[in-house]
Amino acid sequence: MDASRLEKLGLRMEEGSSSPLARLELPEGFVLDNPVTRKPLPPVTFQISDEVLIPIAPPAVAGLPPVPLNSVKTRTALALALTSAFDEFLFHLERRSSQLQALGLHPTVNPATLELSSELEAGALSFVLAMDRQGQFRVAQASRQGSELSGLPEFRFELSEFRDGESLASYLAAHIEEQPSRPHASSPPSPGLVRYEELAQAFGAQAVVPPRSALEILVQLSVKGATYRFAAARVQGRTFRGLLAGAKGKVWAERFELDSFPGIVHLVADLLKVAPEDVQLLGPESPQE
User: Fold this and answer.
1) Cβ neighbour number for residue 136 with a 10 Å cutoff
2) Into how many domains does the chain fold?
3) Pick from 32, 73, 98, 263: most CB atoms within 10 A?
4) Residue 45's pLDDT is what?
C-alpha cells in the first residue's frame, strides 16, 4: 500500500493482526456525534483490504459501507464520504424506530454500537430483531419457550411491508419453522392442530377473516417421495408471504397476492419442474418417510 497516497487522505497507518489498519482524524468542520450519548465519536479506524477502506472502529461506525480508495482523493473527500454514510444510517435508525413503534414494538438502541433491536413474541416463539447499517432487519435470536434455537435461516426482511406486529410474527414463525417435521406414521395428530376444512364446517363458508387479523397456513406435501412444507403468512389484506422448504432448506420465498395465487399444487409443480400429479398434499396423519 502506497503510504504517501494514504497520507494525502489524512490516514495514519497502524499494524493489524491480519491486514493493515488506518486511522482518520476528521478535519475541521466534520464531526460524528453519538445520538444516544450526545458525545463525539473517537477517530475512525479502517481496515484496508482490496483497495477499499472498511470502517471497523469505534463500534458505532462498524458495518458502514466500505469506501473505495479510488473514489476519494483528499482528506476532505474521505471525511465527506464517511459522514454522509453515517448520516444515512442515523436516518434509517430514526425511521425504523418509528416503524417499530407503529407495529406496537419497543425499539432499543445500544449506546455503544447504535444497533437498533426489538423483541417480538409469536406464541411459543420469541424473536430478537436487529437492524443492519443499511436499514434492513434480520432475526438476531430466536427462542422457543425460553430455549434458544440454533441454525436459524439467514434472511432479511422489509419492515414497512407489515401493518402490525401479528402479521410480522406470523411471517417470522413461518421462516423459523421452515424445516419439515417428520413424525412417525403411527404418531397421532397434534391435539391443537386445526384443519381449515373443520373451520368451514364449524363456522360456514360465509365466515370471513378481518382485514387486520393474523393468518398463517401450513401444508405438508410429498413430491416423488421427498417431503416439503409450504407456509404462508398474511402481510395485510390479501397480500401474503409464502415459503416452500424441503429437507435441504428453503426452496422458494416470495410475496404474493391471494387473487393471483395458482394454488399450492401448481406452484410446487412449477418450482420443482414436475407434473402436478407428482405433488401430493398430506394431512397430519398421512404416512411420511
Assistant:
1) 15
2) 2
3) 32
4) 96
φ, ψ dihedrals at 174, nearest 5°: -65, -40
Could you identify the residue written with the cell 497516497?
A: 5
Contact (CB, 8 A) for 216 and 177: no
User: Grid coordinates 442515523 are at which residue?
Assistant: 90
Query: 83 near 77, Cβ under 8 Å?
Result: no
- Candidates 49, 183, 39; CA nearest to 111 is 39
- Segment 238-255 shows an average pLDDT of 84
Cβ partners under 8 Å of residue 99, min gap 6 = 159, 160
Cell of 203: 363456522
- Residue among 159, 33, 141 at smallest CA distance from 96: 159
Beta strands in the chain (DSSP E): 11-14, 21-24, 44-49, 52-57, 67-68, 108-109, 116-122, 125-131, 137-144, 147-148, 216-223, 226-236, 239-246, 249-257, 279-282
Cβ atoms of 197 and 147 within 8 Å: the answer is: no
How far is Cα 277 from Cα 111, in angstroms, rounded to an integer?
Answer: 57
- Does residue 63 belong to any structural domain of this protein? yes
Among 99, 120, 137, identify where a domain stops.
99
Confidence (pLDDT) at 53: 94
Convert the pLDDT of each residue in 223-236 to its tens digit: 998 888 888 888 87
Total-model pTM: 0.64
**127, 182, 180: which is closest to 155 by C-alpha?**
127
